[in-house]
Specification:
Rubrerythrin, domain 2, mainly beta, three-stranded antiparallel β-sheet, single chain
């Protein structure tokens, strides 16, 4: 079940709720009954490592006497774009 993050407009509390995708979004803060909005946050899911194809499914080549000059594939990690406003105080990515 997905976890959604909400922020209260009245008290500023940020909290997470486990909800089905079919459930309606929350509208009230559980602490102060103020209005809440969904917050977009960074996922904790990351794919790291050499990759499934090269590690588990690539067939081993037999030595035919010729050497391959192709370099092994490298992963290119993309960085998220910078905030156009110069940074946000409420952005979860900047929270430490």
């Amino acid at each position: 079940m997905p976890v959604y993050e909400y922020e209260c407009d009245s008290c500023g509390k940020v909290f997470e709720v486990q909800q089905r995708m079919a459930d309606a979004p929350l509208t009230e803060c559980p602490e102060c009954d103020g209005t809440v909005k969904k917050v977009m946050s960074m996922s904790s899911f990351q794919l790291k490592g050499g990759g499934w194809y090269a590690d588990g499914y690539a067939s081993a080549r037999k030595d035919t006497g010729t050497s391959s000059t192709a370099a092994p594939p490298t992963s290119t990690a993309s960085t998220p774009p910078a905030c156009p406003a110069g940074g946000c105080s409420k952005c979860p990515a900047t929270a430490s």
